[in-house]
Predict the structure.
Amino acid sequence: MTVIGLDIGGSKTQAVKVSDAGAVLGEALSGSANISSVGPAEAGRQLDLVLDLVGVDGVRAVCAGAAGVETPSGAAVLTKLIADRVPGARIRVVHDTELILAAAAVRDGVAVISGTGAVAWGRSGDRHVRAGGWGYLLGDEGSGYWVAREAVKRTLGRIDREEPADRLGQQLAADCGLQDTSELLDHFYAQTERRYWAGRARVVFELAGSGDPASRAIVDEAAASLAAIAVSVGERLGSKGPVVLAGGLAVHQPALQEGIREQLAPHGFDDVRVLTDDPVRGAVLLAHESISRD
């Protein structure tokens, strides 16, 4: 009854192998195996790395939660990649947001992820819907990448208006190792790694906490955007939650959590929780569940 849970995010892939008694037999990390971001070849390479580290002998089932599996074709590609590496195992592929509710021990509710990207997913009975998760080129408002990009845009806007650099621009440039805010434009296009910019969101939250109005405005807009996709999911399901917040930004930034709560309250969402377990634990539970259905 040994199973493997996989949490495939935009920045990394986490694997946990667990026995039927709940004992952790192996844990490992590798780069992202998100097929929509890195392509099938690189996704397969990262799966090779992480599965070799935990071992696949005797594994009865694998559940992978990943972005980029919204379409049947995307799910089929990832399913085959895993099946080729864990022969004979039952393979279950779900959107990564589904792991959040499972890890939070919530059957019906709304999950909101704000990390490198941003998305909401919810379930009520046999029905489930999602909102957001369009990727950094089309959306992901409220994500770490979006927060940093907004900071860059506002800084460049000040340069266009021939206004002096503000605290946000100065601190952001310094955090990037730059001498002047005028260097941010070239640096943004030269540094294309989304995880790099998502990490710069920390600067915005630190300044917002010290009262910087430009940073505070970005944080408020991020909270409003995340609350909006949660409301979109909840209203279509006829559900008022609970809402479970997950992802690096949502979990580690109390100001964002509070902003989301304030935005959700007028819509009747009064049960907002922050995920305390790794989402990969939800993948393990879903993998065991797939065996029990046999």
Q: What stands out?
A: The chain has a mean pLDDT of 91. The chain is about 50% helix and 20% strand. The CA atoms of residues 240 and 268 lie 6 Å apart. The chain has two domains: 2-104+277-292, 144-274.
